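BUG: 3D viewer hangs when loading the predicted structure for this chain

Environment: internal workstation, default settings.
Expected: structure renders.
Actual: progress bar stalls at 90%.

Input used:
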Amino acid sequence: MASLIRASVLPDTRQAKRRDWSVGIPAFMAIRRLGIAGMTGAAIIMCMIVMAVAVPLVSPYGIAETRSGERLREPEFAHPFGTDRLGRDQFTRAAAAGRTSLTATFLALALSLTIGVGLGLLAGHAGGGIDMVVMRVADVIMALPTLVLGIVVAALFGPALLTVVIATVSFWWAGYARVTRTLVRQVRNEPFVEASRAIGATPWRIATREVLPHIWGPIIVMAALDVGSLLMTLSGLSFLGLGAQPPTPEWGLMLADGRAYFMDAPFLMFFPGLMIFLCVLGVNLLGTALRQRITTSV
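Structure tokens produced before the viewer hung:
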């Protein structure tokens, strides 16, 4: 009898173990469904993040450590990216710069999403005068040259990395507000929204619990595609001297530092530019795969 009981229970136990294992890898399966392009983009982004976090911790060279006897060394085994005019290891600084640049980029993206989606929800859900005011302000901001506006704001408050983040957020939120408002107006009269109104749900609850989950997909895709543009904007402002200041490692600042030595030591600009290129390529591949996935699933 005991053997029959074990035989009848064993298949269910094995099936439960298989289910437990499948629950442990949902992220991998989700990325796998994005195809080769999406997996490639995710792999590039993960490699850049691991490099930014791990290399400064294990590198034998300090981020700001100068060695006068090793100035402008070409790439070699000891210094894969060479050294700069002060003898600092460029590989260590490029990795640390990734941490600075990516942190600033995702901070600017998070703030832009919060402001833009919040105002878009308010405008689309409230309508009337609030809708008109928010959209007219967004139209004015979107009509201005973004880089010029960022330069003006950064110049007013002084050069600093936080300044260029605030400057970028000051005009980047407008695109999210307009897209969110359009999506809200498409779903605000759907039956599930009317049902929430009928049971007495507050406007805030309807907007955040009913409307937002149904429009979040396109916004996430837009944000993923914007990471590259944000990174290039922030790096461009730092390249102009308005962002991160020495000795803080940042890709745009490293490009600016290597500009004077472009003919004699082109690697000083090549490797920071390569880091920016790889990051933009990775997020664009991942964002495009997400967009195609959402489009085909609708």
